[in-house]
Every structure is written in C-alpha cells, then in structure tokens.
C-alpha cells in the first residue's frame, strides 16, 4: 500500500486573509520560518512518505483525478486542503501523517462541519477519481455523504488541525507566527482573549505594570493587559485578541502598497510626535544614551561569548564580520565619534521594543495598537532616549529584522569565501524611502537613527541563541549599517 498526499491549494484565500497577508493561496503563508506547503513537505519526508502532489488549479485537480483512476488498486490518497494547518509544532503533523499512512480503508475526518465543511479525506484507489472530481467541483462533503457506506467511522474526531478560513483561528495562528522567545509563550484564552505567559516572572510583571503607569493620552495606542497571575513558576496576563495581523506578518508577506504604507507611517510618526517629553540636563541625557547604545552592547557581547553555542559560532562570525569583538569595537568607535551629535536634552515616554511584530495595524481602518512594551516599575522609568523607538522601527524597515526573525533569509559564501546575507524582501526601496523622508522633518538625524539601529542588531544576538543562524544575519546587518554610516554623505 502506498499513500499519495494531494495538497489542494487551488482555492483563493478569503478577502480578509488576503488583506492581512497578501497571499493568494494558503500554501504560500509563512509560519514558523516556512510556508505551510514547506511544513507539509518536510513532515511528509520525516514520515517516510513521498513529497505531496501540489494542486493549484482546477485543471490540476482534473488531471490528478485521471491519474488516480489509472493508479494501482493498492494505492491510497490523502486529500489535504491547504486551509488546514497544525498550530502545534511540526512533530505533531509528522506523527499524524505516519498514523494516516497506516490507517487503510476510506476515512473522512471533519475539521469543520458547518455548510463550508472541510477536513481530511483518505480514500482507496477505487474511490479516488470520484473524490477528486467532487473536490474540484467543491462538493466533497456531498461525495462523502453519498458514499458513507464506503467510509469507516473515524477513530478520532480531532486531528489537531484548524481551519484558517475562520478569522479568529487565522489571527490566533498568526499570533505565534514569529518565534516567541524561548522563555515566552502565547496561547488562546477564554472569551476572545490571548494569554501571554513567561518563566521570566519579574519581566512579565513589569510589562503588565507599564500600561497602568502610562500617561492617559498614551493608553489609546496600547492593548490593555489584565488578569495578572503568578504561580511561582510562571507569570501570565491576558489581553484582548484583536483580529488584526501584526506589521511583521504584513511586512514579510509584502501586503502593503506605497499609499497604504505611507498612511501607516503617518500614524506611527503621529505617535512619535505625541510622546510626552521631559527636559533633562545634557549629562543625564547622555547617561541614558550610554546605557542603551554603549553599555548594553558591551554587556550583550560578553553574554554571547559566555554561551555554549558561541564556540561553534565564533569561526563563522570571524568569517562574516571579522569576529564579534571586531564588530563591536567598530560600532563603539562610531558611537563615540557621533555622541556629540545627539541633542541629549530631553527624554520621552517610549515603548521600548517598537518593532513590527509588536505593532497591530489594520490598513483598512488604520486602527493601530501596540503590544509587548519594555516593562517598567515606576513612572520615571517610562522615559527613555527619543531615538530608541525610531531605531526599533528602522531595524524592521531598513534592517530587515522581520525577514531574519521569520527565517526568510540566507547566509551564503561569496566568491571570496566570505559570508553574505540575502533576504526575501524584494524591492522595498520605495518603503525605505518613505521612512527616511519622514525622519528629518520629525527632528531625527537619519544617520544617528541607523547608528542606534546597529547597536540593536549587535545587542540582540544572545537573545536569539536558540536559532544560531540568526546571529550571523544580525551581525552581517550591523556590518552593512556601519558601512553605510561610514560612507561620506552624498553631495
């Protein structure tokens, strides 16, 4: 008996999914550093099965039906709609495929039983042609019902799959799209809420306290947390589950037009302009800068070098950027050379981690909400250097952070055996230009924004040690930024 997986990616995604991600078919949706199709292909390989046959058109479905009709009588076919996904790690999908390969007979496992029925259908060769014909016509449910005597009752009604056509399930699925830090988790809560949980209990409490300490006029920008819990091992809080994709997802999928991205930037720079300010003496402002852009880099480089995985990374970092110490020294020299160019005469209430994955935005309604701010324990701690939030935005827009974080990049050898970075951003010059054009009118020196951004790519390295390849991507990006900063300004 041989099992052929037929991956039906012929159906266009619903309009709300298209609006949030820009993908036309579910198979191209990126989740956990891979497309859904790639996840299924790798799970099939791990299960010892042949690569799935991908069906993207009605003609492909008809052709598959003809081939199934001529297949050996011992053949079996698994009809796998692309709108079904496993929200748990891929190991679950692999185990499920192994189990189904041993099932034998004809089975239908519903995932959704309403009028828009969907599920997995396993058929023997004698039923395959008819099942595929019904699938092509959108009448698979009727086929299963009509031939119910040929189908065994499913041994289990729940395969652990979700229907991505459901907006709530889709947004919940995307909530874990980008790697949560290894000490964090996000899960569905009751009554349309999300639960964020962490083993770093003190950090999560600071995040929770942040909202209550915010000035009232700033709270409209943030999703309100509530129901803080601490069981002694982990801490958690809940927040409303908004059916809005974060900007990291939208950015990686290339969903925005120049006009739409311009409106998003208008909203972001409006927030930047409205941040409460606090005048400070220049020595105090410089002390805050030094903690963010100098001391943190030194501390994080030391942390990276203390980690067990660094031993294997060090030769690669040496080939990529001359070593992490050389990169850090180059950055610190650039910072010291530019330090006097910062005004350092005021602090602002800052988010503290204003990257795209922490920004929920609807391009349809222009609703903007922030999540996961840097936690604080006092109102005074809300205030930070004005450039920091802009550097976080820049590392998403100019630095390509979200492509690295979602695995949409590659580190390869060049002709001189050096390491180079390439991502899947395509042509984003127009978006980067829109961002750069807004910096100076808003009172920010573009070169200083990029300098602060370089510090982020170096200092975040040890926090992503669970995916060591990312650290090479971050180091190469920091090197590229320093190359840009050190070039003389265009005349």
TrEMBL record:
Q: Which domain of life is it from?
A: Bacteria
InterPro entries referenced in this protein's UniProt entry, alphabetically: Aminoglycoside_PTrfase (IPR002575), Kinase-like_dom_sf (IPR011009)
The residues covered by the Aminoglycoside phosphotransferase domain are 194-394
**Which residue ranges run through the membrane?**
none
Q: Which SUPFAM superfamilies match?
A: Protein kinase-like (PK-like)
User: In this record, what's one Pfam family?
Assistant: APH
Put simply, this protein is called: Aminoglycoside phosphotransferase domain-containing protein
Q: What is the lineage of its organism?
A: Bacteria, Pseudomonadati, Pseudomonadota, Alphaproteobacteria, Rhodospirillales
